[in-house]
Amino acid sequence: MLQRLEHLLGIEPLAREQITFILDQAAPFQEFQKHALKKLATLRGKTIALAFFEASTRTRISFATAASRLGADQMNLQAESSSLKKGESLIDTVRTLEAMRPDAIVMRHSASGAADFMARRIEIPVLNAGDGTHEHPTQALLDALTIRDRLGRLDNLRVTILGDILHSRVARSNIHLLSKFGASITLCGPAMWLPREFEYLAPNVRRVARLEDALDGADAIIVLRVQTERIHEPALAAEEYILGYQLTPERLRLAKPETIVLHPGPMIRGLEIDPAVADGPQSCVLEQVTNGLAVRMALLYHLVGVAPTDAPHPDPAGSDAVSSAGSSSGSSAAAAKGSANAAG
Amino acid sequence: MRVVEKRQLLSAEEIGRTLQRLAHEIVEKSGGTKDLALIGVRRRGVPLSQRLAAIIKTAAGVSVPVGTLDITLYRDDLSTVAQQPVVHSNEIDFPVDGRDIVLVDDVLYTGRTVRAAMNGLFDLGRPRRIRLCVLVDRGHRELPVEASFIGRLVETSDTEIVEVRLREIDQEERVMLVDRVT
């Protein structure tokens, strides 16, 4: 039996089987996106608080749409976090949110550990939409779903992650997830963004300085966004980055014809990725977006959809719950056999 | 939950004969099979719908499309279920608009499953007509739902459960009446 998920704070604490369960449960929600009528009543009456303390468009819209399509209401909190002292304001935030009694909180914050901080102080499920440079679990899950759908498997892959690894919570979550499935991971980027410590995050992680050495045999390449604030640092100019690390069609050929390319978005065409690669057949960026919606719907369904109990997740191969046993009818047991008794 | 078997309602042969009869009834009472489609409600409605389609094909020479519907997301009792239901995909590869649909399930009880199935169908399109075919109707409706095609009508009490076993899922084939033992 799977240990039931209470929060989604990161990939690192998850068991491989829990991840597989989430990915399997995303499949019906992938299919759901093709329905004419994309509205369920499954989470009707529930309120999902979207607490984004860091700017986000894509992730926020994705979670908002997931909540809407499940029939839930939303509480939208977007706070500027320019001068928040670590910890102090979060306590106030927790208290404010709790006072409005949402049924779950989706949270993005610039401080690593913020989601965990929230989860320890609040009684409702917390879904981490990105905390500082720590984790972005739903991104890794949608990346894994995309990879699994495209390549037919998730085990023992060779994956290259390219770009600003140091500041990337996407990189960390992906390293954790793919390693649980036996991946060999190659990290590639400018040296100051490629700390040695990352090799200790999981077994089979190596760093490579030159892009040309990082692509051979790769099943999937994850291209990270270049945070343009950093590209103006004296250490690296945009032209240098492009020269050394842009994923061009020529460089992509150093991998395999079947190699797929992922990008968490938003892409800067012409900087970290050549438009021809971004729009080419190996690119999965649009599928990633669709899969993100499916994964987030599956997570909201399983974390919010049923009243919290200690019951573990069911074995996906087991029988369904709506069997011939019928619904939980409130009527008391009719002891009489044969004809019914008159009331009263 | 412990159960004690009270009696057998349908043997394997009886299930087979019942499905034969139901398949013929469906063809007779559909005024033409052009728009007809069978949709099996997960879980045991699925093999039943497939068998009905096979019989219709053999008997009437007509290929009726068959689909699968998962109602987990449309249930009205999510907050009372102890274990969290696993969601499965639908498998309906034909458009639902304008179709003469026969929903197929093993047991009709409170009617809530059928209500959920109809909600699911309406999310996919607008059928011309929906009728219900069940192997067993055990009474105790809690919603205004009725079946047009009934294999066996059985009087039951609230403590009893109608257990359907089908070879495709349970590796045996029979329908039993069992009692809940507390």
Structure in words:
The complex is a heterodimer of chains A (344) and B (182). Chain A is α/β, with parallel strands linked by helices and 344 residues long. Chain A is built from eleven helices and nine strands. Chain A has helices spanning 16-32, 58-69, 88-99, 114-121, 137-151, 169-180, 228-231, 238-245, 249-252, 275-278, 285-304; strands spanning 47-52, 73-78, 104-109, 126-131, 158-162, 184-188, 205-208, 220-223, 260-262. Chain A has a five-stranded parallel sheet with strand order 7-6-5-8-9, covered by helices on one side. In chain A, strand 1, helix 2 and strand 2 form a beta-alpha-beta unit. Residues 81-85 and 316-344 of chain A have low confidence and may be disordered. With 182 residues, chain B is α/β, with parallel strands linked by helices. Chain B has one domain (11-158): 3-Layer(aba) Sandwich (Rossmann fold), CATH 3.40.50. In chain B, strands 3-2-4-5-6 form a five-stranded parallel sheet. In chain B, strands 1-8-7 form a three-stranded antiparallel sheet. The longest helix of chain B is centred in the N-terminal third of the chain and has 17 residues, at 12-28. The radius of gyration of chain B is 16 Å and the shape is globular. The chains are: A alpha/beta (344), B alpha/beta (182). At the A-B interface, helix 1 and helix 11 of A face helix 3 and strand 7 of B.
